LysR family transcriptional regulator (Acidovorax kalamii), 309 residues
Amino acid sequence: MTQPTAESIGWELYRSYLGVLSEGSLSGAARALGVTQPTVGRHIAALEHALGLTLFTRSQQGLLPTEAALELHPYAQAMQHSAAALARAASGHGEGVRGTVRVTASEVIGVEVLPPLLAQLQARHPGLTVELALSNRVQDLLHREADIAIRMTEPRQEALIARRVGVVALGLHAHASYLQAQGTPASLADLAHHRLIGFDLETPFIRAARKALPPWRREAFALRSDSDLAQLALIRAGGGIGICQVELARRTPQLVRVLPQQFNAALDTWVVMHEDLRNSPRCRHTFDALVAGLLQYTGLAEEGVGVVA
C-alpha cells in the first residue's frame, strides 16, 4: 500500500494522532474514536512515515509524545476545530432551521441558566442540534472552537458580532442553616472567623476580587475548588460563605446574601459569534434566542434583540 506524502495526509491520520496524544495509548485512542486499536496503530505509523518524524515513544506509562508531537499539536487541533466547523456548516443546509450549532459558556451559566433556553429553542426548531461546551476558558471563535459563546468579558476581535446582554450581579451568600449555626458576619473583618468557599488555584478573578474583598485569598478558604459548580453546591449544602450569582441565589430561598453593602460585583455579559455566521439560520436563531433569554436573566430585557445587521 502506498504511504501518503506530507502533502496528502488524510485527516483521519491526524485524528488518530490527537486521540493518542489525549489518551496516552493506542487502546485508549481507539475507544475514544470508536475504531479498532490496529487501525490507530496503522494511522500513527503512516503519519510518522509521511512526516519523517517519530511522534511517540513507548514507556511503562504508555505512549509518550516526542517534542515533535507536542509541536504539531496546535496545528492539528486547529484542523480538528475546522473539520468540526465544516461538518456543522454542512449540516445546516436544507429547508428551515436545521443542523448543528456549538455553544460555549461557563460552567454555571451552562448548567444553571442555558438549559431552559436551549430546550425552548429546540422545541421551536426540532431540526436543530445544539452542542453545549462548558468551560471557564475563553474559547476561540475565530478558529471555530465554537459557533456562539457566552462571555463574561467584552470581546475585542473585530471579526466578531457581539451583543451585550447586561451584567450578572455577584454577592456573598451562605445557606440559612450555616448562618444559624455560625452567626451572620457584620463586617468584612468578621469573615476571618467563618468558613469561606473559594478557588484552589490563584486566578485573575481572585486577584480582582481581592481589591474589593481583601479577605478573599486562597489561604482563607476552608473549602477550595476550581469548579464554579462545586463552589455553588458547597454554598447550597451549608458548607460556608462563598461568591454566587445573585439571581441564582434567589432560586434557592434558603440562600441568604451577606454583607451586600460591603461587597458587590458584576460581570459584563455578552453573546458573541463570528461575523461569517451572520447569514446561517441555525446560528442566527440560536444567537437571537440566547440574547433574548439572557436579557431576561439579567433584567435588561428590551426591544430589538436580533443579530446586528
About this structure: The longest helix spans residues 67-91.
